Amino acid sequence: MTASSAAPVPSEKGAEVGRRIGVGLMYGLWKPRVLGAWRVPATGPVIYAVNHAHNIDGPMVMGVAPRPTHFLIKKEAFVGPLGRFLTGIGQLKVDRHSADRAAIGQALGVLADGGVLGIFPEGTRGEGDFASLRAGLAYFAVRSGAPIVPVAVLGSTDRPGRLIKALPPLRSRVDVVFGDPFEAGDGSGRRTRKALDEATERIQKQLTAHLENARRLTGR
């Protein structure tokens, strides 16, 4: 599967517009505290691996990250005006229940162009503890050679004051902690199922360690 056989790669300009909108929304509704953003490589392809416990995780990272980000987002969100908006700000529609070749091609195209791809490796919102990773993250990392930057989004969803389920209370602090970039592959260039399984194990250890460190740093 090549990027050229998929839908056109979304523009970085659109993602930059999304980043600016995200900055305004996130700092207007919550109190983000960003740690370690300097660890994100300034140029070249990068994959953000983001834990997913809150509905705002994607917009939060999009807003506070130092570079425009193209997130893989479930196709169910691309409905009506919201769908057109997400497409306009460079986000990628993916069918989570099949091998979505168009989305795969677009995502690889983003990385081939030296852009930033955002992934929730757990596949869906849950405990946000990286306990169950899908193989997609390993595939993109091994196939593209892009480094993975772990990102922990930590905010309280169990305190009073929530207006919407799975959202931190408005004006509460939300910590976003960027970790050190790392390579997922073993250097062999192998893309076999066994190689991807091994890469997924390495990734899970790195992401879990980053989350534990982020919790220590923030007191979450």
TrEMBL record:
Keyword Nucleotide-binding applies: no
UniProt KW keywords: Acyltransferase, Transferase
UniProt-listed Pfam families: Acyltransferase
SMART domains with a match to the protein in the record: PlsC (SM00563)
Phospholipid/glycerol acyltransferase domain residues: 46-156
InterPro entries: Plipid/glycerol_acylTrfase
Gene Ontology molecular function, alphabetical: acyltransferase activity
CDD domains recorded: LPLAT_AGPAT-like
Species, as recorded: Streptomyces tendae
PANTHER family: 1-ACYL-SN-GLYCEROL-3-PHOSPHATE ACYLTRANSFERASE
Name the UniProt record assigns to this protein: Lysophospholipid acyltransferase family protein
UniProt keyword annotation of Mitochondrion present: no
Entry superkingdom: Bacteria
